[in-house]
Write a structure and sequence with these properties.
- The longest helix is centred in the last third of the chain and has 17 residues.
- The protein is globular, with a radius of gyration of 20 Å.
- The chain has ten helices and 16 strands.
- Helices cover 28% and strands 26% of the residues.
- The chain folds into two domains: 154 residues, Medium-chain alcohol dehydrogenases, catalytic domain (Quinone Oxidoreductase, Chain A, domain 1, Alpha-Beta Complex); 144 residues, Rossmann fold (3-Layer(aba) Sandwich), CATH 3.40.50.
- It has 332 residues and is an alpha/beta fold.
- Strands 3, 5, 6, 7, 8, 15 and 16 form a seven-stranded mixed β-sheet that branches.
- Strand 13, helix 8 and strand 14 form a beta-alpha-beta unit.
Length: 332
C-alpha cells in the first residue's frame, strides 16, 4: 500500500513515500479505499510536531499523515453495524488518509449523500464540522446577534461566514488584504476590515454604534486577541480557536473584566464530535447546505501522492485560499 509518512518532525522535506502493509481491520472499524484526502493546517501542524505532546490529538511518530478523507468501504470489522461494503463515507480526526487504504472507527465514518462528490466530501468535513460547532454550539448565533470573523478568507473563515449568515446573524470580518476582503464579502460578510495593527477594533465599534459585536471568532491569537476584546460588547464572547500568530501566554484574567466582563473560551473540535450522533448531526447540516447551494466550499488546488510536498509548502506559505485536495487513488 502506498502512503505518505513522517518519521521525524520538520518541513515538507520530512514527508516520505512508503510501501506500507495493508492496515488491519479491527473490531469496530471499517476498511476504506481512500479516494481523496483534504489538506489542512492540522496536517501541517502534525508534520511540524505541534501535537507531539497533545492529549486531545494523540498522534505520535511515526505516522501516516492525513486526518480527513473520503472513499468506499471495503470491509467491516467485528461488531460494526450501520455500514455496508460499498458505502461512500467521509471522516476526520483519524490520521492515515494520505494512503491508498485507511482503517476508520465506524462511529466516525459518515455515509455520504449519493449526489455529493467524494472530493468535495473529503474537504468539507474537518473545516465544515469546525465552523458548524463554532457557529451553533459555541457562538449560538441567531437572528439579532452579531459576530466578527477573523481570517475570513481562509477555509474555516469562509464557511463560518456562510453558516453565520444562514443563522440570521450579522457578520463582520477581517482579512489582511483587499483581495482577501473581496472573498469574505462574496461569502456574505456585511463589512470587512483590514487588521491594521489592531485598529480593526475601532472600525468594528464604529460599525456597531460603539457597542461591539456579540461574538468574535479569533483564530489568529497573539497579534489580535487583545484587540478582539476591544471589538466585543460588554459581557460578549471571544472564541480563540487557533493561534496562527502564536499563543498568548501572558494573559491576566483581570483583562477580561476590564474589557467588559467578557467570556473567553478556547474550544477544540474533538470535544464537539463526542459520538456518532453528534457527528451525524453536523454532517447532515453541512452536506445538506452544500447540496442545496447555501454553502459553497471551493477546492483551492489538486495534488497527488507524487507532489504532496508542493501542497504542504504552498499551504504553509499561506498561498492557499480555501483548501486543497489530495488525490490518493493513483500509484507513484
Amino acid at each position: 500500500m502506498k502512503s505518505i509518512q513522517i518519521h521525524r518532525y520538520g518541513g515538507p522535506e520530512v514527508l516520505q513515500r512508503v510501501d506500507a502493509p495493508m492496515p488491519e481491520v479491527l473490531p469496530g472499524t471499517v476498511l476504506v479505499r481512500v479516494r481523496h484526502a483534504g489538506i489542512n493546517f492540522m496536517d501541517i501542524h502534525t508534520r511540524q510536531g505541534k501535537y507531539a505532546k497533545s492529549r486531545t490529538y494523540p498522534v505520535r511518530l511515526p505516522c501516516t499523515l492525513g486526518m480527513e478523507g473520503a472513499g468506499e468501504v471495503l470491509a467491516l470489522g467485528d461488531g460494526v453495524s450501520g455500514h455496508r461494503v460499498g458505502d461512500r463515507v467521509a471522516w476526520c480526526i483519524v490520521w492515515g488518509s494520505y494512503a491508498e487504504y485507511a482503517v476508520v472507527p465506524a462511529w466516525q465514518a459518515v455515509k455520504l449523500p449519493d449526489a455529493l462528490p467524494l472530493d468535495l466530501a473529503a474537504v468539507s468535513v474537518f473545516q465544515g464540522y469546525t465552523a458548524h460547532y463554532l457557529a451553533h454550539d459555541v457562538g449560538r448565533l441567531a437572528s439579532g446577534k452579531s459576530c466578527l470573523v477573523h481570517a475570513a478568507s481562509g477555509g474555516i473563515g469562509q464557511i463560518l461566514i456562510q453558516l453565520a449568515k444562514r443563522s440570521g446573524a450579522r457578520v463582520l470580518a477581517t482579512t489582511s488584504s483587499a483581495s482577501k476582503a473581496a472573498i469574505a464579502r462574496s461569502r456574505g460578510a456585511e463589512q470587512v476590515f483590514l487588521y491594521d495593527d489592531g485598529r480593526f477594533a475601532d472600525a468594528v465599534r464604529a460599525a456597531t454604534g460603539g457597542q461591539g459585536v456579540d461574538v468574535v471568532f479569533d483564530s489568529i491569537g497573539r497579534t489580535t486577541l487583545r484587540d478582539s476584546f476591544r471589538a466585543t460588547r460588554t459581557r460578549g464572547l471571544v472564541v480563540n480557536y487557533g493561534n496562527v500568530s502564536g499563543s498568548v501566554d501572558d494573559l491576566d484574567p483581570l483583562e477580561l473584566g476590564e474589557a467588559g466582563s467578557l467570556l473567553l473560551t478556547r474550544p477544540r473540535l474533538a470535544d464537539h464530535l463526542r459520538d456518532a450522533a453528534e457527528i451525524r448531526r453536523r454532517a447532515d447540516d453541512i452536506f445538506s447546505a452544500l447540496l442545496e447551494g447555501s454553502l459553497c466550499i471551493d477546492i483551492a488546488g489538486r495534488y497527488t501522492l507524487d507532489n504532496v510536498e508542493e501542497a504542504h509548502a504552498a499551504y504553509e506559505q499561506r498561498r492557499m485560499v480555501g483548501k486543497p485536495v489530495l488525490d490518493v487513488s493513483i500509484n507513484y
